[in-house]
Write a structure and sequence with these properties.
The complex is a heterodimer of chains A (330) and B (330). Chain A has 330 residues and is mainly alpha-helical. Chain A has helices at residues 14-41, 48-55, 59-73, 81-97, 102-126, 131-150, 164-167, 176-194, 196-206, 208-213, 218-244, 255-265, 277-296, 301-329; strands at residues 169-171, 174-175. Chain B has 11 helices and 14 strands. The longest helix of chain B has 19 residues, at 2-20. Chain B is elongated and about 65 Å long. Classes of the chains: A mainly alpha (330), B alpha/beta (330). At the A-B interface, helix 1, helix 2, helix 11, helix 13 and helix 14 of A face helix 1 and helix 3 of B.
């Protein structure tokens, strides 16, 4: 090892690490289990096009969840992501009214997402305010602007080729969104697990003060993470707007909690310091498969919510439960 | 393995739902509502079931998201497309955002109609309105005239001066005034759809016009406030309050006699008609085109205008004879 590099462990207790690993495998088993049972329960489940349609239930949320996972691991949170989608979509819709083409719309979408992220970043990292408070505020602020601009109206008239992002297919049943999802999964996986930047995120989440004294520029890393979250919300906004073909201020209402649910279900510690991108990817599939599979059986939505809730509680409680059992045996 | 247990039990629940489903060769009509758990839509589902029983060989899939979002309805629509249902009858949460998803449904051979709350014309084959402006305008004056065989002074308590719906209905009412001889509309006041202002305006009417025999309030807020004002002034029996209201809110006024009758759409009839229309279109018994007359069982025929929209019937009249049944519905 290069002596100038420092090794910072994820956690001080190694048994916990092992537990988390076995639990990630368990989540994968859950996904496989749901897939198998759905195949038996509904004759329509194992159909390439149907499964392709089902991926739209989670791809946009999952893209945000990757950035959100990094943010939560670093000990911060962004609850304004759904409102960033609303504001970004409104900006894109407004641009269309002034004759913007597809390229302009996409650029505006990315830019507005970044700006929203930067706004959160400044308030949290430079002003030193708690992120949960800041982003609850910007959650109302960003969507509020959309409501002022649009009221009960809607923006329509997106160019025909703009529909590709949310409705287009790259090859056979593989939509543009699912391809984007895979690409981002790889990028975020590499960044978090294979780079110094990723190590820094874990270090900050475990002990920000210690990380600071170890020479990590804590505030700068957090600033970048807020920017990334804003950017991903902007990208999700482009996909969702393209899929809906219109913008209303109520677009993506309640998504912030679904994104956080996905992240936590993926095994990211809500208090920061641990978690993985593969976990989030599996969680995205679990949530997508559950909603689509139960939807095929026409199970009322409220039962699906109950199921997701139980799954979440189960997954959070499981590591602790196992530790308790292990402690009792010892 | 508590997570696995939960999944197993949920699948058990799901399978029970499956067991309840009818044979696959039935005509399957999906009644998609804005959100589950709303009395109005539960009543519509009852009406759809009635239509299914009358037709025979029809399965109604009553479904919808848990909250009134377009994204939630799209997930439901995707699941219905995957099941290859024969028809979708939807009360939409968003006029435009559902269009791409519903277009896809129509591309795959599914009959799509909207009812109650419409979808843009390119996303459905027809839209079923519960009533029409002309029918409502006629109904509100008829309700007043029915209880005034010798004629008399009536006044209108509307919402705001800029309320589009109310203004159109009052205009339509004025067009048919000639059919109700002896009925004299002495004035129109505006309660702004605020309970306290409507109450004051109703009191003002009673003082200004001592011979007032009826107050017509074509707004659910105004009608309740006016009935309260009449009761408080001790003029029950002298002045009849009528117009458009909700049975749950008007049950007290009907009981006290402040209102002899009022009108609003009947959700049971609406669900019944939607199911009948969806059935007839999906079975090729009728084609949705301007001017077409499409049968809807006991509700008669639906005549389509240039936008492929049609009005079901006169608003349904609620009085002492049926208020008990409907006040718990909506």
């Amino acid at each position: 090892m290069n002596p100038t590099e420092r090794f910072i462990p994820d956690r001080l207790t190694t048994p916990m690490q092992r537990l988390l690993k076995s639990w990630e495998t368990l989540l994968l088993l859950v996904a496989v289990g749901i897939f198998t049972m759905n195949s038996f329960a509904s004759p329509y489940f194992l159909d390439a096009w149907n499964l392709s349609d089902a991926t739209f239930n989670f791809t946009e949320k999952a893209m945000i969840a990757f950035a959100m996972a990094l943010l939560i691991i670093s000990g911060e949170i962004d609850l304004s992501v759904a409102s960033i989608i609303a504001l970004t979509s409104t900006a894109m819709g407004a641009a269309v009214q002034y004759g913007a083409g597809t390229t302009d719309i996409v650029l505006i979408g990315l830019l507005v997402g970044l700006l929203c992220g930067a706004f959160n970043a400044v308030l949290v990292t430079i002003m030193g305010l708690p992120s949960i408070v800041v982003t609850i505020g910007t959650m109302s602020l960003f969507r509020g602007i959309s409501y002022i601009v649009l009221g009960d109206q809607a923006y329509r008239g997106y160019p025909a080729d703009f529909a590709f992002f949310g409705q287009g297919y790259v090859w056979w049943v593989f939509s543009f969104e699912i391809v984007l999802f895979v690409i981002f999964a790889i990028i975020y996986g590499v960044v978090l697990h294979k780079t110094n930047f990723g190590r820094a995120i874990y270090a900050i989440g475990n002990n920000a003060t210690a990380a600071q004294f170890s020479g990590i520029r804590v505030q700068r890393v957090k600033f970048i993470l807020f920017l990334l979250t804003g950017l991903m919300a902007g990208i999700a906004a482009i996909c969702l707007t393209s899929r809906l073909g219109s913008t209303r201020p109520s677009i993506a209402v309640g998504w912030e909690l679904e994104v956080v649910t996905m992240v936590v279900l993926g095994g990211v510690n809500i208090l920061g310091g641990s978690g993985s991108i593969p976990g989030v990817v599996i969680a995205a599939f679990v949530m997508g498969l559950v909603t689509f599979g139960l939807g095929l059986l026409n199970v009322p939505g409220i039962v699906m919510s109950i199921f997701i809730g139980l799954l979440l509680i189960g997954v959070i409680a499981l590591p602790r439960l196992l530790t308790m059992i292990a402690a009792r045996r010892a | 393995m508590s997570v696995m247990k939960k999944i197993l039990s949920t699948v058990a629940i799901a399978t029970t739902f499956m067991a309840g489903a009818a044979q696959a060769d039935d005509v399957r009509i999906a009644l998609v509502v804005k959100a589950l758990g709303i009395g109005f839509f539960e009543a519509a589902a009852k009406g759809a079931e009635e239509a299914a029983n009358e037709l025979g060989g029809v399965e109604i899939i009553y479904t919808g998201p848990t909250s009134t979002t377009a994204e939630g309805q799209i997930e439901v629509i995707n699941a219905l497309i995957a099941q290859r249902v024969d028809a979708i009858a939807i009360s939409a949460n968003d006029t435009d955002a559902l269009v791409p998803a519903l277009k896809k449904a129509m591309d795959r051979g599914i009959t799509v109609i909207s009812w109650d709350s419409g979808v843009a014309p390119e996303g459905r084959s027809l839209h079923l309105n519960p009533s029409s402006n002309a029918l409502i305008g006629n109904m509100i004056i008829k309700l007043a005239a029915d209880h005034l065989p010798d004629g008399g002074d009536v006044a209108v308590l509307s919402a705001t001066t800029t309320s589009t719906n109310q203004n159109i209905w009052i205009e339509e009412m004025n067009k048919v005034m000639g059919n109700y001889s002896g009925i004299n509309v002495v004035g129109t006041v505006y309660g702004d759809d605020l309970a306290d202002k409507s109450y004051r305006e109703a009191n003002g009417l009673m003082q200004t016009y001592p011979d007032l025999k009826a107050i017509i309030a074509p707004t659910s807020v105004g009608i309740v406030a006016a009935a309260q004002a009449v009761a408080d002034a001790g003029k029950i029996g002298e002045i009849n309050v009528t117009g458009l209201g909700l049975p749950s809110e008007m049950a007290g006024a009907i009981d006290s006699g402040a209102s002899k009758s009022f009108a609003i759409w009947n959700p049971i009839d609406l669900g019944y008609s939607a199911a009948m229309l969806a059935y007839n279109l999906s079975q090729g018994n009728a084609t949705a085109e301007p001017g077409a007359e499409i049968p809807m069982g006991r509700m008669g025929n639906l005549t389509l205008d240039d936008n492929n929209e049609g009005a079901m019937a006169d608003p349904f009249v609620y009085d002492a004879s049926n208020i008990e049944q409907f006040k718990s519905i909506f």
